[in-house]
Design a protein that fits this description.
8-stranded mixed barrel, 3 domains, 22 helices, about 20% strand, CBS-domain, about 600 residues, Alpha-Beta Plaits, single chain
């Protein structure tokens, strides 16, 4: 029997005996880490060549068994979700092409939901954009059928296919999941950033919620939050597991810290790959490599699940390539041709800890290390990813500080505001802007303009109490002060007074005597501009009205605009405590 026949029979055996394991990956709200729900994923038997979902579904498509496989996946996922009493929404993947088959059983998913005792509105049908649909009208009618049952609709992998925006427009989904390609290294790619920003803006305009997929590093997380992504999914936020994770406590330091911190957990550098028992035939391990080209290394474990070695694609190929090598090793257990276990580390260690251990193992040329959880095999770690993460960490803080004033910028400000809102901590925010700065900068030059900005930064730092109140330089001549006590009135009055007095030293005597200077506007006309001064808009956001930093930003910008309408130095205290148009949210899970 050939390998292909073996896979067909293996799949039929799996379907007949329901030998699939549903896993559940949390989808969390990026503001506070609370679960929106879980995406149901599937794995084949651990020692099977069909363990990975890629091989599993590829084989199903090859032998026209996709429909029974998908239906079994749904059945097992729904039952496990219901049995565990999990909270929130259940996301089920549905291949759009199945909806177009004439014999696809109508209403079967609804019957599964009812039998499990779940409400239809807790089910989200995920339709991947990877599969190109030819008969759009038929497809929309099929999706409408799901909607009539009360299910929510999500477009998965937006941006991975060819018709994402058209599909979005015609389906009008409740949720859109941004493909992980756009999230990977998002903070370093301005093109990806522009795409994601526009997708999020479209979602807000259409009343659709956004989930950013594949978040694996703290930098990607913070950039998603900065761009306004409401929900997220990825290894950094929670791995696929049999149990239903609630990671609010674990994510709290990452999401709620008002200072920029680097996530040093090992998760971003770990890949969960199948392990094999030490008595597994070497030929079966070779088939695992043959069926999954992305697999380069497999851990070897004992009966208790402890790692005892590792076998790499190259090492096994070398053994099999020798004269009589294949005949010699193919029937032997893999422990006869495995390498000794490389570096073993516990998953609780930080990336910095592992980096030190890797340095101590300088004589070992292995590109991988094995990660354990309480001594049992957990996953495969990448030395290259560790070194890359360490390198990126060195420039992380520099990227979020203003190079002129060395004050933190937008990202830490947004984190701070979200943290205060989540914790229901009273605070006030002052938006400080320099009036007539552009004509001054045009007339005196950018070097003098920088000196004025540095002057304001120094005055702010002198009047604002560190560790109690916080200063952020959000770009150009704009600053934000976050006050967490009742000190704002006196401090802002002193800031106004000191700046008005000190800035006079940055003008010529002639301009001081004239009370200002003339400069050319955008239309080429000379206009007289008064001496530069400060406009300060002050707000006290209400956590019940402001759901995120986006709402606070809108509130503060309006207050600053009102302050700028007042001639000369001004402080405008807004009575509004919430935005005109609050952020649109899905119902809390």
């Amino acid at each position: 029997m050939g390998i292909s026949d073996y896979h067909r029979d293996e799949l039929r055996h799996i379907l007949a005996n329901k030998r699939l394991t549903p896993l559940f990956q949390p989808i969390v709200r990026l503001a506070d880490g609370k679960n929106l729900g879980f995406e149901a994923l599937i794995r084949g038997p651990s020692n099977s060549a069909l363990h990975s979902p890629g091989n599993l579904f590829k084989t199903a498509i090859s032998y026209n068994l996709l429909e029974p496989l998908e239906l079994l996946c749904r059945e097992l996922s729904i039952n496990a979700f219901a049995k565990a009493g999990a909270e929130g929404l259940l996301f089920l993947n549905v291949n759009p092409l199945l909806l177009l088959t004439s014999d696809h059983p109508s209403g079967l998913t609804k019957k599964m939901i009812e039998a499990a005792g779940l409400a239809p509105e807790r089910i989200v049908i995920e339709l991947s954009e990877q599969f190109q649909v030819e008969d759009t009208e038929l497809f929309i009618n099929a999706v409408k059928h799901y909607r009539e049952f009360g299910f929510k609709i999500a477009i998965d992998d937006l941006g991975s296919g060819f018709s994402g925006l058209r599909l979005w427009s015609e389906l009008q989904p409740d949720i859109v999941k941004i493909d992980r390609y756009f999230i990977d290294q998002l903070h370093q790619d301005p093109v990806k950033k522009a795409f994601v920003k526009n997708i999020i803006e479209i979602a807000k305009d259409t009343g659709c919620s956004i989930i950013a997929e594949g978040i694996e590093t703290s930098e990607e997380l913070q950039m998603c939050r900065e761009l306004g992504a409401e929900y997220g999914q990825g290894y950094l936020l929670g791995r696929p597991q049999v149990e239903f994770q609630n990671n609010v406590a674990a994510l709290a330091p990452l999401l709620a810290n008002n200072q920029l911190t680097l996530n040093q957990a090992l998760d971003p550098v770990i890949t969960v790959t199948p392990a094999v028992q030490q008595d597994t035939p070497a030929l079966q391990v070779a088939e695992l490599f043959a069926n999954d080209k992305s697999l380069h290394c497999i851990a070897v474990i004992d009966d208790a699940g402890r790692p005892v070695g590792v076998v790499s694609r190259g090492w096994l190929n070398e053994k099999f390539s020798h004269t009589f090598g294949r005949a010699l090793y193919k029937r032997k257990a893999v422990n006869f041709c495995m390498e000794k276990a490389p570096l073993l580390v516990e998953k609780s260690l930080s990336i910095d800890d592992v980096s030190s251990l890797i340095s101590d193992e300088a004589d070992d040329a292995s590109l991988h290390f094995l990660v354990t959880d309480n001594g049992l095999y957990y996953g495969l770690g990448s030395v290259r990813k560790v070194l890359k993460q360490i390198s990126e960490n060195k420039v992380f803080f520099a990227r979020y500080t203003n190079p002129l004033t060395l004050l933190p910028g937008n990202v830490p400000l947004n984190m701070h505001i979200d943290s205060l809102l989540q914790q229901n901590v009273p605070f006030s925010l002052a938006y400080v802007d320099i009036d007539y700065f552009k004509p001054y900068n045009d007339l005196y030059g950018y070097s003098k303009g920088d000196l004025v900005i540095e002057l304001l930064a120094k005055i702010l730092q002198a009047e604002v109490r560190p560790s109690i109140d916080y200063i952020y330089h959000i770009g150009g001549d704009d600053f934000i002060i976050v006050f967490t006590d009742n000190n704002s009135t006196a401090a802002l009055a002193q800031i106004q007074c000191r700046f008005t007095e000190r800035v006079k030293h940055y003008y010529t005597e002639a301009h001081l005597a004239a009370g200002g200077c003339s400069a050319v506007d955008r239309l080429g006309q000379a206009l007289f501009y008064p001496l530069i001064s400060l406009s300060i808009g002050v707000v006290e956001p209400d956590p019940l009205l402001c759901l995120s930093h986006h709402d606070v930003s809108e509130l503060a910008s309006c207050a600053k605009s009102e302050a700028k309408k007042i001639a000369g130095p001004s402080i405008f205290n807004s009575r509004r405590r919430g935005p005109v148009q609050p952020s649109v949210k899905l119902p809390n899970p």
